[in-house]
Every structure is written in structure tokens, then in C-alpha cells.
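QA checklist item 7 of 12: single-chain prediction sanity check.
[x] sequence parsed
[x] length recorded as 351
[x] structure emitted
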Amino acid sequence: MLMSSIVAFPSPVGGVALSGDLFPSVLFTVLYASLLPFFFFRLAHRQTITVLSISAVITCVERVVVFSLRAKQSQTPGLQTSSTLMTYMQVTIALSYIAVAQDTVSLLRCLYVNSTKGPIPSDVDTLDSPVGTMSSSQIPLSPSRGNRSFSDSDGELLSDQPRRRAFYRRWTDALRLAFLVATVTGIVGNTHYKDGMSSIGTANEVMATRYVSSGISLILVILVAVLVIRARRLPRVRPIHAILILTVLACNASSAIFRLSFMHNRTTSLTSTAPGSGNTVSEKVTFYIFHMFSDWLACFIFLVPNIREIFNTGMWGDWRSVDPPPESSVLSKRKKGSHFRRANGVVGVFP
């Protein structure tokens, strides 16, 4: 327990849940919990389940726990001064939006990789699998309900482009690693939050690493947004693709900007209501709107629409680093099956 400190430590993002935080805590508990049934619905239907939304699911579960604890904290003075509980909340609040932003790279990868797939042989249309059931690395996209049909104006993009596809996969992997840097610095900074309450050196370290984490994440979000805007000119990319990804990125940017604008504040008490403590009415309102609600909206976009069908990908997305050999493709297997059936027919006629 810590009522006050002689050290001016970084103010907690979101402040402490005081008595007035009971209603918003219950409200956000319900909001985040309301998204989980969509995940279980996808889980029960093989053609809609995808791991591309797993970070949104984890975020919803974490936020249900966090806001349940905040609801309890708002009515329990002893919990309002718990440095351990505050450290846990600072970690989970800081990392969730970065994880969701990182998943937008997987959607971006689908757009760029799918744009490099060549024309589809006619017998692919006879496959039993509906669109989106295969990984985008396994077979080219079928010209069905989710895809824009090609025209001669697409020029060279009508041909299969394995080298460009490999290039896209490499730099999207690099983007994911860059988001990992933001995640690691966020973990380092916020896990030491408790120690920063009693040490000025640790407090400065916490403030610096939190700024690095949020700053890197904002730069990466802007970079991904630029790449999404550029992707609108690629084949098979529809307006809905850009709209969904850009909306998620706008939500992520909102959280990052809020954090960057607030984290310069310091306080000497978790329960202080002085300006900059995170506990004033205006600071709580901006926290709930520009951080918590924006995070919820990003999770909503990942979980409510059928992301797998919209982006024409498989359960795992485009997870391969290289294309599989032709012999392992679905089309080759179908051709081999047809060949063997024809051979058996010939044997039957000429014993």
C-alpha cells in the first residue's frame, strides 16, 4: 500500500478508479464482454474462424478483468492505494493497443500478397472450398464473390509475381518486429512502475521507456496507414479493405497520441486529484474516450465483421515465408486425382 511518496513518479495513465469511476468501469466491462460472443460464433463455424483477430480477443478478456478490478477498486479505498494493482493495470493498458495495431500488419500483408497472384486456371473454380478457406500462401485467390475481376488494364499484374510476393512478406515481417520493439519497451517501462514510486532514477526510466514505446507505436501506425493508402491502387484491393484497416489504425493512433500527451505528468500520490494526476474529471473523460473507447472500437472491427471472408484469407492468414512447392498445392492434387481417375477408366476398358 502506498498513500503518498516523496518522489514525484509518473502519473498513472487512466488514474485510479475513485468512487466516480464505478459507472464507466461497469459500462466498459459490458462493452468489452459483448464482443466475446462474436469470437465464439466464429470459433463454432469453420469457414469464419481466423487467428488474425486473436489480439482483439485477448484485449477484450484483459479489459473485462481490468474494468472489473477498477469497479471493485472504486468502492474499496484500500485497493486505490495498491501499487501492485496499479502496476498490473498500467502494463495491460499500455500493451493491448500495440498488439491490435500489430495485427493490422497481417491484414496489410493479405492485401499486398494477394495482389501478386496471377490468373486462375478455370478448374480452380470447381474446388469445393469456398473463398477464404485456404491460406493466401497456398493457392491463388479464386475469382469469386470477394475479389475484383481483372481487366487487361492491369497489365503486368495479371501475371504471377513470386519475387514481389516474397519482398512483401519480408518487409511485413520487419514491420512486425518493429512493433515488437514497442511492446518490449512498454513491458520494461510499465513493469517497473511500482519501483518508480520510491526511486527517482527508476521513475525517470519508466517515463522514458513509456514515451519510447508509445512514440514507436505511433510512428509505425502512421507508416502502416501510408502503406494501406498506397495499396488502394493494387489489384483485388477494394475500398472496404482500406476503410477497415484505416479505422483500426485511427483508433490505435488515438490511444498513442493520448498517452504521449499525458505521460509527461507526475504525481506524489495515486489518489491525488490535482491537475496532471490522471484523476481529474477532464483527464478521466479523455482517457475513457480517446484510449478505452478507441481500443474497443478497434476490437469491434476485428471481431464483428467476417475478416476472413472480407480479406479472402485462411484461418492463419498469410503465414508462410515462401510459397509451397507446386506439388503440394490444392490444384496439383486435384489434377493428379483427375489423372488417376482417367487412368483407371482406361484400365477398365482394356483389361
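[x] summary fact logged: The CA atoms of residues 259 and 297 lie 17 Å apart.
[ ] second reviewer sign-off
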